[in-house]
Amino acid sequence: MGIVLGIESSCDETAAALVDSERRILAQRIASQDAEHAPYGGVVPEIAARAHADRLAPLIEATLADAGMTLADVDAIAATAGPGLIGGVMVGLVTAKALAMASDKPLIAINHLEGHALSPRLADASLQYPYLLLLVSGGHCQILLVEGVGRYTRLATTIDDALGEAFDKTAKILGLGYPGGPAVERLARSGNPKAVPLPRPLVGSGEVHFSFAGLKSAVLRAKQAAAHSDADIAASFQQAAIDCVIDRSRIALGSAKNPTALVVAGGVAANQAMRGALEALAAQHGLPFVAPPMALCTDNAAMIAWAGIERLGQSDPLDLAARPRWPLDPDAAPVRGAGVKA
Length: 342
Ligand code: KG4
Ligand code: ZN
Known about the structure:
The protein has helices at 34-37, 45-66, 86-103, 112-123, 163-173, 180-188, 213-225, 230-255, 272-284, 294-297, 302-310; strands at residues 3-8, 13-20, 25-32, 76-82, 107-111, 131-136, 141-148, 151-156, 262-265, 289-290.
């Protein structure tokens, strides 16, 4: 039995959580910065770092109080050490180091992507390795074979934009504000997914990697042409994005060694239409489909605390550096154009 305090600050959510080895989330708090970044249509790194610095310490204090605990009750302090916006990551990591030092508890540095990758196991105790993971968020778009803690084989990544980024840019083009994914999904419900002819980049080419830049440009042209309603553009964009995801996931399912399940994680996993399409794909392959509850899909600290539980026994040095880039599979071959993605 163990209890880990998790800290997340790599993008625009300041979050803390206490999770135990029985998969119980004992307490969790999330402070979103949506209001601060909304005027800019995206996350402004400097504003994010300052907001994390202002909010994190009281947020951790409140999380411990919610559970009726103090640091004496936890077995380790886990914090996102990358990849992400470096100012924010540093705030979380330095805070974790200070707490670890003051309480004489081990520090566990967590890769944010590993947090997402293992989050389905927090929600579903029956999920066994290896599983095929579609990791789709604002900064990442990968298909990984998850073979164990720290054992990830990247099968696909994006050569340009991440899927969540494509949703956010579409939202911006349609004037829907930030964050865009939920707004696009909402508007798409009242639109016709077949109304606007949009490209499905690389579908049918046998290419394993993703590309969304061409789709985004086509959405911009459709908006400028003013021949369709925003709802039809949103619905057609979402359908095109889903078609790309299903095509690439089918290829990955064909090449992965005996996965036990098809799993989706990351912020875009909150998209109901995509969940439905992935569930159907998994069924075609005779596999269970696993998607964590919505609150575990977008950035949160429970997934970081859970990764800490999976890594209990590890103790990282207090001079460990925050990493803006930190690939889950360092051995994966470089992909043309993918240099800026972790
Ligand atoms: O995992 P996350 O919270 O942060 C990153 O690590 O990037 O993912 C945020 C991304 C944003 O791009 C957001 O627009 C997208 O997830 N997102 C969605 C939905 N909810 C969040 N995209 C499509 N449909 C949604 N319902
Ligand atoms: Zn994330």
